[in-house]
Amino acid sequence: xxxxxxxxxxxxxxxxxxxxxxxxxxxxxxAGTPKWAVADAVTLGLLVRVRRVWVASxxxxxxxxxxxxxxxxxTCVTAAARLGLWVLGSDxxxxxxxxxxxxxxxxxxxxxxxxPVVPRxxxxxxxxxxxxxxxxxxxxxREAALAVWESALRRQLVDPLALGRMPxxxxxxxxxxxASPWSDSGVETFVVPRLRxxxxxxxxxxxxAGHRVDLLIxxxxxxxxxxxxxxxxxxxxxxAHDAALRLLGYHVIRVGYWQVLxxxxxxxxxxxxxxxxxxxxx
Length: 282
Fold this sequence. Notes:
Elements: H1 3-18, E1 22-24, H2 25-30, H3 35-43, E2 47-50, E3 54-57, H4 62-70, E4 73-74, H5 76-82, E5 94-96, E6 110-112, H6 129-139, H7 142-154, H8 160-164, H9 170-178, H10 186-195, E7 202-208, E8 211-217, E9 221-226, H11 232-247, E10 251-256, H12 257-262, H13 264-276
Parallel strand pairs: 5-6, 9-10
Antiparallel strand pairs: 1-3, 2-3, 4-5, 7-8, 8-9
Helix pairs in contact: 1-3, 5-6, 6-7, 7-10
């Protein structure tokens, strides 16, 4: 192979990396890359063929390669996590397959055969956000689904008015009706619905004493929820803010992420007793 052909092969591989590490061969060729340069890149080990119609970098994203190989798209909580949305967690890959597709050979994968809300163009390996949210609403428990939706709204990845005009399934419409962009983290989304039975004002992300508080119950009871980042300097800032709140007459209850998820009955019991003592009143 000549030096010129090796340079052309390296350039083809660079174009694939620039487009996310995996791309349809036809798209490369349509964009001006010679077919022989793509073939040379494969021969030199700079690219690998995936299901004949795709080529991928040798260090390409494993999930994307799997999706290309099986003719599916990443969706639901898998795609939500890749978008940086708050996801409770899943040890299974969630993919969507067209209704006419055959078997999908992805170990332990959750395969969604549902028709998409937004049409999926050929060559797309990750679902549009609207499809992701619709499937999350149908697949996940209500609280976990609402947390994902509120995370998307908070990051302004989707317009709720536009969503409302789409042919959403019933489960997605229910989640949309409840979702708001005001929770700072997914676990905060869990708290408000669980406390509505108390019939007290519940205000999320209220600005008090120079910082936002996670939840203000009534007039004076503050619930702060610590995540994994509440250590070191952040912990000192939190402690100083708690002191400032107390000096202003607020009562602060601080709990951890896993307390809300795994020991909610204990958190609720503390809040009930605080309300019983009137600590939520001005």
